Each structure stands twice: as C-alpha cells, then as structure tokens.
TrEMBL record:
It comes from Hibiscus trionum. This is PIN-LIKES 1. It holds the Pfam family Mem_trans. Coiled coil: none annotated. One of its GO terms (biological process) is auxin-activated signaling pathway. It is found in: Endoplasmic reticulum membrane.
Length: 399
C-alpha cells in the first residue's frame, strides 16, 4: 500500500477529533459561552459518573470473552510500560528544565499518562471504516477494534486513577506544606508585595460530591487511622469508570452471564442496549469538553517554554519510538500474536497526547491546573500532525 494512501487513512480519524474539539473550543469562548467552566464541570460529572461507565460496560461485555482476554494479556503490560517509562522521562525532564516544585506533578503526569481511552475509541474503529484501510478487508475488524479500544480505556482508567492520581497527589501535598510555611512567614512579616492568591489550597471534591479540606502537613496525615486511609484510597482507585470496566469484563468473561445479557435472544438484552445507548454520548461530549478545556491553554502561566517543549518531545517523539521497539521485540518473541490491528493499537498507545484526566486531577488538587491546560493545548496541537504521521508509519510496519 502506498505511503500517501496510508497517510489519508490515518488523517481522517484525527481530523474528526480536531473538528469536534474545535467546536468545543468555539462554544467555550466568552462571546458564545455555551460551554463555559460551569457547564463543562456539570458535563464532566455526567461523563464521569454515567456516560463513561455505561460505555465501558457495553463495549467490554459485547467484545471481550475469556478466550480473547487470554490472547490480549500483553496489553495491560504495554499500558503499564507507557506509564512507567513516561514517568521516568518526565522526572528527567523536570531535573533538566528545573521546573518549579508546584508544577512538577503536572509535568510528570502529562509525560506518563496518555489519552489511551477516548482517542483509541475514536481513531481505531474509524480506521476499519476507511475503504482503503489495510485493516478494512478483515470481516472482524470493527468488532476487534472496539474490543482493543475498550480494553485500552479500561486499563488506562485503572492506571490513571491509581498511579497518576497518587503521583500528582504527592507533589500537591508537598506544595501545600510549602504554602503553609509561606503563610506563617507572611503573617509575621507582612509586605505590600505579598501574593494576592490564597496560600492554602481551596476545598476540593473527594469524588462523592462532598467537599473536604486537603491535609496541610505530614503530621495531620499521620493522625488519620490506617483503615480510613485504605478506604479513602480504594474510593479513589475504584472510580465509576473502573467499576464499569470490571462489570463489563465480568459479564463478557463469565459465559452464563453473557448468555443472559448479550445477544439478540438474551432475556436481559435490554440492559445491554440501554447501556450502549447511554455510552454513545461519551465520545462526542468528551471531545467537546476537551476543546473547552484546551481554551485555557491560551493563557499565560508560570510554566517555562523548555518544560512545555520537553513534554511535547516526550509524548510525540520519544515514546512513539520506544513503542515501535517494544512491540517489535514482543512480536519477535511471539508475545502479541499475528493480528496486525492489535500490533497497531499497541504502538498507537505510545503516540497519543496526554490524557485530559491529568487536567482534571490537577484541578482537583488546585495544583498546576492552568499549566496543565497549556501543556495539553500545545501537545494536542502538535499531535494533530504527529499522530497522523506515526499512525501512517505504524500501519506500514504491521501490514
């Protein structure tokens, strides 16, 4: 297949994402204000608590079976590698660029956490729909694409709300301790040049709708009983998306449950069709919200240019190159099978821009949320070109 044909195939899904993102950005500008901060916040909650879990339950239950789960065992390892290697590269980046401590969590989070859910759900199935796609000749392409993208989303959700959440949380706690010290110093030595921003972080949501004040020092953290710490951590890890992924996997893998819920003759097929109907709203709504969030990236912040360029280089150059090496090595040792679409998805997971959820986590802790938006803006701007080129190269390598 010619390079130009592959380029066109790779470009079409990316253009769809860009167009819908542009609509979200347009709706969020001040003159229009149909998708302002308050509306985006409500939509985010609906996606987080309803749309996303419904999409995961439906897609995983329909496409994942015990047999397919066994053959896809390498994908969880591959996703974990993207997080670990991205974190290592992010840590090196903050040392080289001397990123301020309060922004280090945002930088490492953006380097480690890719958009492994929404973009694959849009791009991978769309590749099967292109008439000149190298994958469109297979009769099971669309079904496999949904399975691969859904499993990627499920694994990414678990890693994001456990690993990345803890990572950003650690830097946010450090930042709060420093703010407390600065607050006491400012109280004893008032100055006319003192900062007008609050020195202690404002309240944030714990995910259940209730507001809690963040801990301001390690001594207060140690006062919390171990049982409460464990329960709090489990609530963060088992987000609605993670629970939805677990439920979908159980229905898909357990044969008796699958026969009851999945299929045209299943007694409870209305449950699956209802979940699928709700889940269909996830991709367009999330893409619109992504456009609204990226608007903040046009504002100024404390993030230096070298750190932004570093994150762009990590996510758009270093990780995709590493992904080619990892997948080719796994293929050499017979760890990923012969399905070219599956190998493409594994490589694609290294080339995606940072997950928008990194901005959500940063906003949760009031730690570098504006800077995270700027990083997201520029990485997505570059990804509109790089993702097309990398997808073209990946297709040429696996077909």
């Amino acid at each position: 297949m010619r390079f130009l044909d592959l380029l066109v195939v790779a470009l079409m899904p990316v253009l769809k994402v860009l167009l819908v993102t542009a609509v979200g950005l347009f709706l969020s500008i001040e003159k229009i204000n149909l998708l302002g901060p308050e509306v985006s916040d409500y939509l985010n909650k609906i996606v987080f608590y309803l749309f996303n879990p419904a999409l995961l339950v439906s897609n995983l239950a329909q496409t994942i079976t015990y047999e397919s789960l066994v053959t896809l065992w390498f994908m969880p390892l591959n996703v974990l590698l993207t997080f670990l290697v991205g974190s290592a590269l992010g840590w090196i980046l903050i040392k080289i660029t001397k990123t301020p401590k309060q922004l280090q969590g945002a930088v490492i989070g953006c380097c480690s956490t890719g958009n492994l859910g929404k973009l694959p759900l849009i791009v991978i199935p769309a590749l099967c729909e292109e008439s000149n796609s190298p994958f469109s000749n297979t009769s099971t392409c669309s079904r496999n694409a949904q399975a691969y993208a859904s499993l990627s989303l499920a694994i990414a959700a678990i890693c994001t709300w456990s690993y990345t959440y803890s990572l950003v949380s650690a830097y946010a706690i450090t930042n709060t301790e420093q703010s407390s010290i600065q607050s006491s110093q400012a109280a004893s030595e008032p100055s006319s040049d003192s900062c007008t921003e609050p020195l202690l972080m404002p309240s944030y949501s714990n995910g259940s709708g209730k507001l809690e004040l963040p801990l301001t020092n390690l001594q207060e953290m140690r006062k919390i009983p171990l049982r409460e710490k464990i329960v709090s951590r489990l609530k963060k890890v088992f987000s609605p998306s993670v629970i939805g992924a677990i439920v979908g996997l159980i229905i898909g893998v357990v044969s008796p449950l699958r026969k009851v819920v999945i299929g045209n003759n299943a007694p409870l097929r209305v449950l699956d069709s209802s979940a699928a109907l709700i889940g269909q709203a996830t991709i367009p709504v999330m893409t619109l919200i992504m456009g609204a969030n990226l608007l903040q990236g046009l504002k100024r912040s404390e993030m230096n240019l070298s750190a932004i360029l570093g994150v762009v280089a990590v996510r758009n150059v270093c990780l995709p190159l590493l992904g080619i090496g990892v997948v080719k090595a796994a293929d050499h040792f017979g760890m990923v099978g012969s399905d070219s679409l599956y190998q493409f998805v594994l490589m694609f997971q290294y080339a995606v821009p940072p997950a928008v959820n990194v901005g959500t986590i940063a906003q949760l802790f009031q730690s570098g949320q504006g800077e995270t938006s700027i990083i997201l803006f520029w990485t997505y701007a570059v990804a509109s070109i790089s993702l097309t080129l990398w997808s073209t190269l990946f297709m040429s390598l696996v077909t």
